[in-house]
Design a protein that fits this description.
two-stranded parallel sheet; alpha/beta; 545 residues
Amino acid sequence: MGETSQSGENASLKGNCNGVGKTTALRLVNFCLAANSNEGLKKIPKEWSFFLEFELNGQNHRIERSVGNNTLALDDKAIKLARLQKFFDGNGPFLIDKNVSGLSFRSLITRFMRHRREDISDEIYPVSSDQKPSDATIRSLYLLGAAYLLAERKKLNAVKLNNIRNQIKQYKEIKKNSRNNELGIDADLASHKQRLERLKAQLENMNIFEAFDDIRREIKDKEEKIETLFQKISINNYQLASINKALDYTPDMTADELKGLYEGLKKLFKESALEHFDKVEVFHKQMAENRTHRLECDKQQIQAENERLNNEYLHLKESAKRLEAQLKNRHSENEYQALLQEKNMHELEIERLGVVQKEIAALEQQQAKIRSIIANDNFEATKYVASSPLDCQSGLFQRLMLQFGEDIPAGISITANGGNNQIQFDLKVSAQSGKSTGITHEMTLAYDWLLLTHGSNHDLGFVWHDNALFADIDAGHRAKWMEFIYQNSIDTGKQYIMSINSENFEKSSPYWSEDILQKLQERVIMKLSGEKDTDKLLGIYFDDK
């Protein structure tokens, strides 16, 4: 019990019973029972060790564990954490079904000691960060004695289906690396096979000529020379055309034209200035004759060169033609090797795509088979639900809810989940007006006690409920539950541990008789207070939030 302080030097702690160690006590028990982490205890000095004494299968045991995990011992013998967990798995109190991977002492014990924040929520059977919804459901079905194996089978088959889908996706990614990645595998295979047949025929009919490459190089050399000659001839032809045009043009003046010009000049110049007309006429005539002679000479030279070039051109063309004739219907070794390499590439691609095709076909067959099994299991789940398998547990839960003092509809329902997921059954713990925090916590208390006293596959002897589950419950309801649980724990031989603030205890006390109040007060094992540090669980102020 966390007692409210009445005085104290620290005003911030006056009237406060939080941080005194109630939840810490629960976390320490969980820590000693082979929990993986000690996150909730991180503010405790690492060198501190804690001891837990418990009875299991008629034998007393003792665990010692340091916060820093430097020390871990079972019955004074050092032990590894994984080994300690296996000890609990193999020695009870849970009858672990080894065929169900998600079942272990650690995964089940937390159902009876809700020390995490997510344990105290709207989810009666919580889904924590370290488990999937399907695992949470399977564990609850296991403790209720329902068809957990059917639920486990769907989870495993759903996982297989997902793995197969991923494998098929990977194979299709391999297909994308193909040259014809836009085609389907069947069409792509057909395309490669057709090309392969054509290549085989080509290779069979190839006439390999050893000198093929040498002749091909010689032809190329001649073609280059032919091209050079053609360019030279074209240039010469252009020059000849220009000369012929120049010869047709006669810019020279005749004697009569020159004399007419001379007569006109007499009017402008003195006759003495024009007395050399005869000499000018002779000069002009000589110049015209020289121009024509020069052009004729150039023309003859170019024509002679063109004749020589044309002869060489025709000779090279004929020679190249004869060489081409030698290569007709013949192939080089390089051409053969190139086709052979392409043939090998198609053969490899056909083999690769064939493997992909077979693997996908095999995976799709497995997929169809698993879907068929899931469909049959869904049918079995529907039949199972129709048999009302949880009627007994639901009735017991309804009677437990009555212990809070109100007759409200409550129960546990199970329905088949035929969806494409890992969950075979939807399990629901509910009560009318269950949306209120108080009613939700009442359902949690009743559900945990039901699993402890009438659950299956375990022989656990205790449950621990923390103050957070009691704080929002109506004081009268809380009083009736505590009175009921006091007597019921005696009748069943089960240990009921509760951490509660004195304020919540005192608000419920008017609803008890003097006898019940006295008996409950006698059951207080430890009082923790914020009055001073020595009144706290660990002797120090400990903020465990």
